[in-house]
């Protein structure tokens, strides 16, 4: 039986400003910047720690992007910044 490993789609390095709305807890809203993107995911850098499994709404108005997403991982970069891996519910073909 074939068990897939890694990503299904290649990510491209792109810095896109996004707004993130935390849906699971108190509707917290913050801004972030993507490091890389794919049609089904993104890695963003933010000041907020967000546990894997949490649901967020990601919006990049300038790019016409709006999608629900699930946090896959949260890695501390330093004392005040975190990298979040997001799995997008809606496929995004173009990120700028």
Can you describe what's shown?
The protein has 96 residues and is mainly beta. It has a single domain (12-88), classed as Thrombin, subunit H (Beta Barrel). 0% of the residues lie in helices and 51% in strands. The chain is built from no helices and seven strands. The protein has strands at residues 12-13, 17-22, 29-38, 41-46, 55-60, 65-76, 82-88. The chain has a six-stranded antiparallel barrel. Strand 3 (29-38) and strand 4 (41-46) form a beta hairpin. The radius of gyration is 13 Å and the shape is globular. The N and C termini lie far apart (38 Å).
Search tags:
96 residues, mainly beta, 6-stranded antiparallel β-barrel, 51% strand, globular
Question: Architecture in CATH?
Answer: Beta Barrel
Give the count of structural domains: 1
What is the overall shape? globular
Largest sheet: 6 strands, antiparallel, barrel
Strand content: over 45%
Compute the separation of the termini in Å.
38 Å
Number of helices: 0
CATH class: Mainly Beta
Return the average pLDDT rounded to an integer: 88
Low-confidence stretches: none
What is the radius of gyration? Answer: 13 Å
In N-to-C order, the SSE pattern is EEEEEEE
Structural class: mainly beta
- Helix share bin: under 10%
Tell me the total number of β-strands: 7
For the biggest β-sheet, the strand order reads: 2-3-4-7-6-5
CATH-assigned homologous superfamily: predicted glycosyltransferase like domains
CATH topology: Thrombin, subunit H
